[in-house]
Design brief:
Blueprint: H1 3-16, H2 19-27, H3 29-46, H4 60-66, H5 68-104, H6 112-118, H7 120-154, H8 159-190, H9 195-207, H10 210-252, H11 255-298, H12 302-305
Length: about 325
Amino acid sequence: MQYNRVFTTSWQIAWKHKKLWLFAFFSQFATIVTIPIVLVPVMAMIFPLLSTSQEISYDVQNFFSTSLLQLLLGTVVYVVVSVVFSIISIVGAIGLMRGVLRVNRGATQLSVREILAETPAYIKPYGLLYLLSLAISLVTAAVLSVLIYLVSMYTYGLGFVLLSPVFLVFSVILTAVSIIISQAGIAIVADEMNLRDALRRGYLVVRHNIVVFLVISLLMGVISFVLSYVGRFASSFMFIPIFFGVILGAVLENMFVLFFGWMLSLLISLVVIPILFVISYLMMIFYQTTWMLTYLELSPQLKEKLPAEESLPEQENPTATPDE
């Protein structure tokens, strides 16, 4: 495995092909857009709870008598918005992988229209993989919540010290599962497999190349760690003028100093936020491209590593169901 070549090629693809940024944006569409939209019906539920007096009333009976409609409306809106934007995210993720695949096969220019025309064939198997990943996340969150609750209730927090190794093992397992699911998603898009065969291919690729995936995960983890601190450092510049503006404005009793601090912070934000935005999407494409190039290099080598009695999933129609 030539790590230098994989990382270099991944960065070149992410930087050169700006159209991939569009698919990267839509691949995160559900996370970016769903929360603000869902806040609207949530606020519609909360506002009726506020009494006309100066005190806030949280009467449970009053809530169910006056806000049941808002509660149902919020639930319906949340489900509909989540489904619609999840589909958009799935299309974005598929388009991003198809674009990277085209570039890896020699394409010098990408057509958004052509890539979008290819995505419907992969929505069903990739959507099932998306639901599987979501189910794993929900079950994991539920188990951890119950475990944390029991530990905090019956050991007064002391049990967290003893459970630290358990949480560490849990995180390692979840990381391995997420990598396998990521490789399965690439198998669906690159090798046109159904869900069952894609999961098996992803598992085999990871199992027979554990060292490779460990090295790449550690390297990308270090890159993410460094960039996160760079982002925090850059973001701090947006708040420094506000901080000094408030202090100096209060000391000098001058509203102009306070206003100047806010305006300077706004100007810095107009510069810093777009830069952080570009870096985040560059790295998103870089990570996805790295995993995809890793799969494309390691997957053809599986036949040499597998025992004779262990068959390898072959390419199939991506619209086939897992049971077919």
